Amino acid sequence: MFITNVRETLQRCVDYHGHFCAGQSLGVRIAKKGLELVAPEDLKDLIVFIENDRCIADAVLIATGTRLGRRNLKYVDYGRMAATFINLKKDIAWRVSLNPSEKENNSGEDAKEKVLTVSDEELLVWQKVKVSLKKEDLPGKPLRTVPCAKCGEKIFDGKDAVDPATGDGPLCRACLGGSYYEEVG
Ligand SMILES: [Zn+2]
Ligand SMILES: [Zn+2]
């Protein structure tokens, strides 16, 4: 799995994302570098962590073929222009991020074209990393499903926990740590 035709890949990203922006160019460059570094023979060997939910996230998922709903794309809310590529078969992982010194040069209207032409070294930084993936986080059938002792909703994939203070559980993260929403009415 390699990106051999950047323009063709970019066009598929633009079609999905809805506009051509520097994020599509950067996302394709990050995906291309990441795939070169971990060289998966098959999509089933690949897991990608994306570190923001801005434009590059769409480019990375289209360019790599990974999907959130297939569990081979993981979203971590760091707000950074970076992604990590894991080859499960080879047991290697590389994190690819935007070179901090490039940030200023690649803003504005010209950026989306310029990002396509600069060298990997100018644009990106890459680092070998280790990622601890739980077996519950891998693609495949759910290994564990339990009802929350408080709200009663099913909790998949080992996301349940016991309240360390009271010993109550299993609890979903919303019931244990507070949720992003409040019930009204
Ligand atoms: Zn965009
Ligand atoms: Zn709950």
Written account of the structure:
The chain has helices at about 5-15, 20-40, 55-65, 110-115, 120-125, 175; strands at about 45-50, 75, 80-85, 90-100, 125-130, 145, 155. A hairpin with a 4-residue loop joins strand 3 (about 80-85) and strand 4 (about 90-100). It folds into two domains: about 5-135, 60s Ribosomal Protein L30, Chain: A; about 140-185, no CATH class. It is of the alpha+beta class and about 180 residues long. The mean pLDDT is about 95. The N and C termini lie far apart (about 50 Å). The strands form two sheets. It has a five-stranded mixed β-sheet with strand order 2-1-3-4-5. It has a two-stranded antiparallel ribbon with strand order 6-7. The structure holds zinc ion (2 copies). The site of one zinc ion has 8 residues, from helix 6. The site of one zinc ion (ZN) has 5 residues, from loops.
- As a percent range, the share of strand residues is 15-25%
Ligand list: zinc ion
Head-to-tail CA distance between termini:
51 Å
Which architecture of the largest domain per CATH? 2-Layer Sandwich
- Topology as a string of helices (H) and strands (E): HHEHEEEHHEEEH
What's the number of extended β-strand segments?
7
Average pLDDT score: 95
Spans of at least 5 consecutive residues whose pLDDT stays below 50 are none
CATH class of the largest domain: Alpha Beta
Structural shape: elongated
Which sheet architecture does the biggest sheet show? Answer: 5 strands, mixed
